[in-house]
Amino acid sequence: MVRLVLVCVLISVSLCDDLISVVVIYRHGDRTPIQPYPRDPYRNASFWPVGFGQLTNLGKQQHFRLGQWLRQRYGGFLSPHYSEKDFSIRSTDVDRTLMSAEANLAGLYPPKADQVWDPALPWQPIPIHTTPELEDNLLSMKKNCPKYNSLLTQLFKTEFFANISRQNRDLYAYLSKNSGANITSLETLEYLYNTLYIESLNKFVLPQWTSGVYPEKMAPWAHLSFATQCYNRDLARLKTGPLFNEIIEHFRNATKKIENFRKFLVFSAHDVTIANVLNTMGAFEYHCPPYASTIMFELRRNSSFYLNVFYKNSSQVQKITPKGCDFNCDFDEFIALLKPIVITRKQWDLECQLSNFERYNHIFVYSSIAIGFLVFTLVLWVIIAWFKHLKNSGNDYTRLAIDEVA
Amino acid sequence: MLIASVGIIPTNSTLTQLHIVFRHGERAPTETYKNDPHINVTWSGGWGQLTNRGKLEMYLLGLKMRQLYHDFIPKYYFPDEVKVMSSYADRCLMSAQALLAGLFPPRDDQVWNKDLLWQPIPVHYVPRSQDNLIAMKAKCKKYDEEFADVFHSEAIKKIDEENKELYDYLTKNTGQKMDSVGKVELLYNTLEIERLHNLTPPSWTQNVSWEQMRKLAARSLETFTETNFMKRMKGGVFLSKVITDMETDKKSPLLFLYAAHDLTLVNILKTLGYKTMLKPGFGASLVFELRNNSQITLLYRDDIKSDPERIAVESCNTPCLLSGFKTALKEFLPSNWKLECNQ
Q1: Which of A4, A273, B59, B188 sees the fewest Cβ atoms within 10 Å?
Q2: B216 and B232 share a domain?
Q3: Which residues does chain B have within 8 Å of residue A83's beta carbon, measured at their own beta carbons?
Q4: How many CB atoms lie within 10 A of CB B175?
């Protein structure tokens, strides 16, 4: 009871209705740059002893603390005894997200009572599930989808984005020249911005050329780049649709009290995942989601089921109101709201493969026309030649050029 | 000369690469049977999950590997030097983590929490339906056809006939049809684990030979690599990977770890030509040592406590060189797995 009250205080929501189920999505902790830029003074591996794109000790600490924080927040709800019946965690298949998840679990599930297996080590192994990145159409979304790619290309051709490209031409040229990288888009700008950000976090002195552009000039474009992947409904459908489908199905099972529904579902992912999920709900304020930033979906019940969404992007937890809903968003309303973008992974595969087929179909149609034309020309040529041959068949001798030469 | 003799681990000084494939630690039963008196027992972690003893076994295996190969396995964990792969199963993922806790306790700069001398290390895996390397459960049509034929073979028919009395007895007492080596294997595993946990076996087990059941279970594990083609489609995939990794010019990774199942070990050992029937215990391991980038030594431990047994590959004499190893196994190394599966 004391615990429950404590939880209510911690949640700091006036309502403390029954918490039914929770879905958490977080970004990995502090990492090294994924790839330094060609003229980076810190491109030598010796500057980054843990390797490129890897979680640092600080990153491990951030996630360990986040795990402890989650334990505190959900202590009365989630048993301290780890059980795969209550809890499931999935990560993208990347070292830093897998390691963040492990560190987080060390904070969330220190072994208690009969789960202590080595009294000297307050840690226990917990399975983290994953799928190879290029096959992942749930979380990493690196599985290829030509349809999505062409939708994104179309987006960048719209007036708004074409204007930005024009407007940034000088900036891109300046950045390209000085960094040695090919900066031609918001995305490539953001990569560079991110590397400079990490280097400044590590107290590395940035090269002189950055002083006029980093961070102020680059920041708004880096922030905007996080909004592009789910900029409209069609894009969101193919980017976060399967994940929202999974979240909604998970909660739906919880509302139906289906036997094996889990209380707690966690996804360990990336900054883009955080941005895309918020953006899909129409609740993304342009920014770079920081390390260990976390979205929490809480399914609650009073007279009916409703959802609360929170975003923890530092020590502060903010309430997120899905666009078109109240903060206490009726679960059915939430489903209705997201219906246009929700898609099963099967359907996603079908649509993404179909678009492949359509593309090949075009190629097929064009090549058929081309081949048809070729055949037609050939036939026509043969007929003409044959008629000519008939016509000229009488004076074959005189037509032989070789005779004339001879 | 002593160094080269069977069962003695040669000096570490020239090691260049190490592959360790191991069975997970002790687990709870994956299934029960109809008349199981312990059907309602709650297993702390859940059915099929790694037990506390299993976690400890794996941790100790990690410590042991550190002790055995301390000159070779780097003191610090670096992702490009160590690759950890696992089967999809929770118990394997957890076993890998626990082993790593023993093998790579953080030191110096890698200590990130002074109250917790453990560090996160990524464990990768591919889904069960795509895994032809560790769990070896990826669909292979032609293999499945051959596997089905095994049960109509004279050899298996003979075993079934010889054990008909046992099958009938087990059928009567378990309350479910027991008519194949596969079914005996599953039952034996459950009985053995229950006994390990001090759950009194039902009285009918007193009139049955546990050794006979154990042998049938081991025979069941062998049926998965009954023919050369079957070996090629199972153990051969793993051996191909080991050879490819050993052939690469790159210095890293140095250490490959594979968290696997008893069947994985049997499949690999049978493909290597190992003759004895096997029923690998929890934490059983097979180590492939590569020395001077050319010489292969294989060491098998039948469970967590066993002494190593040197595995000799026929027609690859001591020292067995990588090139000779590859030649000796040529027949078993698939060139295009999917194609050969007829998929």
Answers
A1: A4
A2: no
A3: 45-46
A4: 12
Give chain B's domain count: 2
In a domain, B147, yes or no: no
| Domain edge (last residue) among B166, B201, B220 | B220
- Whether residue B136 lies inside any domain: the answer is yes
The answer to whether the CB atoms of A54 and B109 lie below 8 A apart is no
Nearest residue of chain B to residue A65 (CA atoms): B113
Task: Judge whether residue A258 has pLDDT over 70.
Answer: no
The pTM is what? 0.87
pLDDT of res. A288: 96
**How far, in Å, CA of B133 to CA of B142, rounded?**
17
Ramachandran bin of B180, using left for φ above 0, alpha for ψ from -120 to 50, beta for the remaining angles: beta
pLDDT-based confidence at A394, cuts 50/70/90? very low
Determine contact: B244 vs chain A, CB below 8 A.
Answer: no
A17 labelled catalytic: no
Residue B80 inside a domain? The answer is yes
- The share of chain A scoring above pLDDT 90, in percent, equals 79
Q: Which of A28, A63, A250, A270 is catalytic?
A: A28
Residue A382: pLDDT over 60: yes
Residue that finishes a domain, picked among B192, B220, B248: B220
pLDDT band at A139 (very low <50, low <70, confident <90, very high): very high
Question: What local confidence, expressed as pLDDT, does residue B343 receive?
Answer: 72
Radius of gyration from C-alpha coordinates of chain B: 21
Residues B25 and B91 in one domain: yes
Interface confidence, given as ipTM, is 0.90
> Which one has a higher pLDDT value, A37 or B45?
A37
Q: Are residues B49 and B170 in the same domain?
A: no
Q: Are residues B191 and B99 in the same domain?
A: no
Structural domain containing residue B335: 3-141+226-341
Cβ within 8 Å, pair A85-B46:
yes
Any idea what the CATH number is for the domain that residue B310 is in? 3.40.50.1240
Question: Which candidate in A40, A136, A234, A271 is catalytic?
Answer: A271
> Which stretches of chain B score pLDDT less than 70?
1-13
Does A271 participate in catalysis according to the annotation? yes
In this structure, the answer to whether residues B135 and B161 fall within a common structural domain is no
Q: Which of A176-190, A382-396, B284-298 has the lowest mean pLDDT?
A: A382-396
Torsion of CA A358, A361, A366, A370, to 10 degrees: 170
* Residue B28 token pair: 């709870």
- Give yes or no: residues B112 and B196 share one domain: no
| % of chain A at pLDDT higher than 70 | 85
Contacts of B185 (CB under 8 A, 6+ apart): B216, B217, B220, B221
| B55, B71: one domain | yes
- Residue of chain A whose alpha carbon sits nearest to that of B77: A50
Number of C-beta neighbours around residue B153 at 10 A: 13
With respect to residue B146, please indicate whether it lies within any of the assigned structural domains. no
Bin B198: left if φ > 0, else alpha if -120 < ψ < 50, else beta: left
Secondary structure, 3-state, chain A: CHHHHHHHHHHCCCCCCEEEEEEEEEECCCECCCCCCCCCCCCCHHHCCCCCCCECHHHHHHHHHHHHHHHHHHCCCCCCCCCCCCEEEEECCCHHHHHHHHHHHHHHCCCCHHHCCCCCCCCCCCCCECCCHHHCCCCCCCCCCHHHHHHHHHHHHCHHHHHHHHHCHHHHHHHHHHHCCCCCCHHHHHHHHHHHHHHHHCCCCCCHHHHHCCCCCCHHHHHHHHHHCCCCHHHHHHHCHHHHHHHHHHHHHHHCCCCCCCCEEEEEECHHHHHHHHHHCCCCCCCCCCCCCEEEEEEEECCCEEEEEEEECCCCEEEECCCCCCCCEEHHHHHHHHCCCCCCHHHHHHHHHHHHHHHHHHHHHHHHHHHHHHHHHHHHHHHHHHHHHHHHHHHHHHHCHHHHHC
Same domain, yes or no: B240 and B299: yes
